[in-house]
Amino acid sequence: MGVRRWIEGWPVYRQWTRHDPTGHGAAAQSRVSANLTPRTAGADKVVKSICPYCAVGCGQNVYVQNGAVTQIEGDPDSPVSRGRLCPKGSASLQLTTGSAREHHVLYRRPHGTKWERLDLDTAMDMIAERTIASRAKGWQWEVDGARTRRTLGFASLGGATLDNEENYLIKKLFTALGAMQIENQARV
User: Where is the 4Fe-4S Mo/W bis-MGD-type domain (predicted)?
Assistant: First the structure.
């Protein structure tokens, strides 16, 4: 009796006796896997998103339960990735729930050795002040007699995860500020 039960539990035997020769159906399930529930079963809602890692823009389904992200999977409705994610995209849950995620601004003063916390308003004011000062210090009205109205005091290097609209707005901003060096990592 024990041998027969062992043979009937064998996946190849189940494939042929249950008319599942490819082993994609119930024949491939064990008793343990038949009782498993998906990690997404308890989600209150599913939010469509895009993977933040590269310029491909793979679609993601973000599963939320009680206001917290519980799982991130590939979006099968995405024409870009058709439900597939690379290893980095598959691990993107840690971006929201990982213990190494920072939830506040950190600043290290020039020649400093320690990071200090800043509130967002203070950090944004520091960025604005430094941008204005760099622009004023590096402003060029003319170069070799030709009117330029530009600054070489700062530059912009966009990330690969920015979409066309974001890149367009960044280009407009830095051009309006007079910057000359405006580049994007996705094109490099």
Answer: 44-100
Amino acid identity of residue 155, one-letter, is A
76-107 pLDDT, tens digit each: 999 989 999 999 889 889 888 888 888 889 99
CB neighbours (10 Å) of residue 46? Answer: 15
Q: How far apart are the C-alpha atoms of 123 and 63, rounded to whole Å?
A: 32
What's the maximum distance between 2 C-alpha atoms anywhere in the chain?
99
Measured between alpha carbons, how far is residue 91 from residues 31, 94, 103, 162 in Å? Answer: 28, 6, 19, 19
How is residue 185 written in tokens? 């990592």
The pLDDT of residue 1 is: 55
Q: Which residue(s) pair with 157 in the sheet?
A: 183
8-state DSSP, 56: S
User: How many Cβ atoms sit within 10 Å of the Cβ of residue 174?
Assistant: 19
User: CA 125 to CA 120: how far, in whole Å?
Assistant: 9
| Residue 188: per-residue pLDDT | 46
Domain ranges of the chain: 2-34, 45-97, 138-184
pTM listed for this prediction: 0.59
CB 158, CB 185: distance < 8 Å:
yes
Average of per-residue pLDDT values in the chain: 86
Q: What is the CA radius of gyration of the chain?
A: 27
If we measure between CA atoms, which residue out of 80, 90, 86 comes closest to residue 59? 80
